[in-house]
Amino acid sequence: MGAAWLISIALIAGITGFVVMQQRAEQSLGDTLAVALHNRIQLFDSLITLRAGNTTLIATRPAMIMHLRTLASAPDDARARAAVAEVAASFLPGGFSAVAIHDQRGAEVSQRGAFALDPALVLPLNASHDAELLWQDGFILRTRAQLSDASGVVGTALAEQRLDILTQTIDDVAGLGSTGDAGICGRQSQSIQCFPQRLRREVFTVPVQQGGKPLPISLAFEGKTGVVRSTDYRGKQVIAAYGPIGSLGLGMSLKMDAAEIYAPVRERLELFAPLLLALVITGAMVLRMQLKPLVAELLMSREALRERTVELERTKADLERASHAKDRFLATMSHELAHRSTRFSGSPGRC
Fold first, then answer.
1. Is 224 helix (H, G, I), strand (E, B) or coil?
2. Exposure string (b/e) for 58-78, b if CB count within 10 Å is 16 or more?
3. Under 8 Å CB-to-CB from 130, ≥6 apart: which residues?
4. Rounded CA gap, 139 and 204, in Å?
5. 92: which DSSP letter?
6. pLDDT for 290 beyond 50
7. Calpha distance 135→121 (Å, rounded)
């Protein structure tokens, strides 16, 4: 019985310890994910906003606007067309991968660099100028801007900038273990479109909900930020941090499989469980050895007490019989004495 109690107490203590370690692991990981997510969001938001603003350099280039105004009245002016091409080419060393200039009728005047011809994903952005985030062997920012002077619009500029720094962040999650992953997605209607991730190297689309519950990334589109234990698009339990990327209209999540989080806890439990069981068994054996003489002595005492009780009951019975015999003797003697007294008192001649 005592061993059973010891084992029960050990099991309860082990389970309680496991739950406590699990909660601490989740809390620690949640804090780590929240900080890492905040830093990533700042990087994406600031870099995209900065690069989108770079399009202003094209839109406000005086020489570009002047030559486009010339082409508006003289479309065949070769010198003006060559000058526009030269200005467009000057932006390529500044971080633009491609620049195209169109006149006010939409006809292309010049194109320099190589545009993404078949992007796997195009998501609109809420940024300065008309901006989109593309994926074609990496992140690409595409922007459009009107070119105008005091007299009105003279043309448009279409520009692309490769965001290699952001592309590199896809694999920069090694510190989160083998299941750590970061997602950048946008919502379109009732689906979520996501850029490639570390564990999924192609563009993919997932529903807003999984198993009747919203995916963590979908909460980011509502402007919410937080850490949650939930089910991801693979149907696996994860600890995920989520939040919007500024006001760009995109969301980001940073997650890790719950199974990997609990693995160290389970390993510790598996390591200490045999030791704990051995301690319990040893304790039970020691307790049994210590209690065995006491139990034997208790049994002997109980037997002696039982024999003593039987002896006392016999003595009591003997005393009761003796008492009854005495009473009968006294009663007989009393009767005999009374009879003799009556006989003597009634005899004649004796006074």
1. coil
2. bbebeebbebbbbbbeeeeee
3. 143, 144, 145
4. 15
5. G
6. yes
7. 5
162-189 pLDDT, tens per residue?
A: 999 999 999 888 677 889 999 999 998 8
- pLDDT value of residue 176: 79
CA distance 268 to 24: 14
Burial class of residue 251 in the structure, from the number of CB atoms within 10 Å of its CB (0-12 exposed, 13-18 middle, 19+ buried) = buried
**Chain mean pLDDT for the chain:** 83
Question: In angstroms, what is the C-alpha Rg of the chain?
Answer: 48
Residue 41's closest CA among 185, 227, 243?
243
Contacts of 238 (CB under 8 A, 6+ apart): 179, 216, 229, 230, 231, 232, 255, 256, 257, 258
pLDDT given for residue 307 in this prediction: 77
pLDDT digits (tens, 9 = 90+) for 228-244: 998 888 888 899 999 99
pLDDT at 137: 96
Which helix (DSSP H) or strand (DSSP E) does residue 3 occupy? helix 2-59
Contact 26, 241 (CB under 8 A): no
Q: Cα-flanking dihedrals φ and ψ of residue 192, to 5°?
A: -120, 125
Supply the pTM of this predicted model.
Answer: 0.71
Burial class (CB in 10 A: 0-12, 13-18, 19+), 320: exposed
d(CA 215, CA 193) in angstroms, rounded, equals 13
Report the pLDDT value the prediction gives residue 350, as an integer from 0 to 100: 46
